[in-house]
Design goal:
The complex is a heterodimer.
Chain A (H helix, E strand, L loop, with lengths): L11 H33 L10 H9 L5 E2 L4 E4 L3 E4 L3 E7 L9 E8 L6 E7 L6 E7 L5 E9 L4 E12 L5
Parallel strand pairs in A: 1-9, 3-9
Antiparallel strand pairs in A: 2-4, 4-7, 5-6, 5-8, 8-9
Chain B lengths: L10 E4 L9 E8 L22 E8 L2 E8 L8 E7 L4 E9 L4 E8 L2
Antiparallel strand pairs in B: 1-2, 2-5, 3-4, 3-6, 6-7
The chains are: A alpha+beta, B mainly beta.
């Protein structure tokens, strides 16, 4: 989920021409354009709520149809088995995988199946960190399977899963 | 929910007290931030507005980007991250947190041997 905007460079001439078009086509059109721009601005706001998503859809959105192998001990996911407070759940993902420029862990995804939007966070690493191990605190809405998916720079994907029982949900719904 | 108040945007970075060259250290960073959660209307639909939360974290080491994180509202209030860093040279570690209001909060730490 890249949130960078690719805004084409506007030259002064382009701008004047565009203004000319708006001016010559009258108020109605410019009003129309105005409301269109408001909608566009809202959609590009990164803080706008996004639609609910099932975990399968999230995984499909992130990885397409690529196959995900079980981590077989190569990736460790540390999270409490019972989280009394769903609004602060400490999570650590540690991968026993190479971190060289040729072969390294590119990304680590933390996904909680039952959240409204399952992707909690994505970490992009470089070989300079020396080791693939990240920690953070996440919010869980309810008792859920928690997944960590590790993506290598060659495209290989490894997944590890653990259930976390949540006593009080932490997402305000 | 804990009080956030005027402290918002304060970045704290913690490094081990002694660092040896070539070692992989653990960097811990925290920013004071409410990480606003969704509000829902009577029909349990999310109210459309720009919610204020940190969505991007970037760490640089002597100007080179070493780690990036994309965070969501499903990251706790006062977001905390920890990550390793192989220290090959003395220099400056900068960690910046950008929120959906367009504000960037930055913290730095000096790496010395």
């Amino acid at each position: 989920m890249k949130l960078e905007l690719d805004v084409p460079k506007l030259t002064r001439r382009d701008l004047l021409r565009a203004l000319g078009i708006i001016g010559s086509t009258g108020v109605a059109v410019s009003l129309g354009l105005g409301s269109f721009m408001t909608v566009a601005a809202q959609q590009t706001q990164p803080g706008m709520p996004q639609p609910d998503e099932k975990v399968d859809a999230t995984i499909k959105r992130l990885f397409g149809n690529r196959s995900i192998s079980p981590a077989d001990g190569k990736v460790k996911l540390e999270a409490p088995h019972i989280a009394e407070n769903g609004s602060v759940v400490p999570v650590t993902v540690e991968a026993d995988l190479p971190m060289t420029p040729q072969k390294h862990v590119k990304s680590i995804y933390i996904i909680s199946d039952k959240n409204r939007r399952p992707l909690n966070a994505k970490f992009s690493l470089t070989p300079e960190v020396g080791k693939a191990a990240i920690s953070t605190n996440i919010r869980l809405a309810e008792t859920t399977d928690l997944r960590a998916i590790v993506e290598m720079n060659d495209g290989a994907l490894y997944m590890v899963k653990q259930e976390v029982k949540v006593t009080v949900g932490g997402c305000g719904g | 929910m804990a009080e956030v108040g005027a402290d918002i945007g304060r970045v704290r970075i913690r490094l081990p007290s002694t660092i040896a060259k070539g070692e992989v250290i653990r960097v811990r960073a925290l920013v004071t931030h409410p990480m606003e959660v969704l509000s829902f209307d009577k029909e349990r639909k999310p109210i459309p507005k720009n919610y204020q939360f940190v969505y991007k974290i970037v760490a640089t080491y002597n100007g080179r980007e070493i780690l990036q994180a994309e965070t969501t509202q499903a990251v706790s209030q006062n977001p905390f991250i920890a990550f390793p860093l192989k220290v090959t040279e003395p220099g400056k570690l900068v960690i910046s947190f950008t929120d959906t209001n367009g504000k960037t909060y930055e913290g730095s730490a000096e790496i010395k041997f």
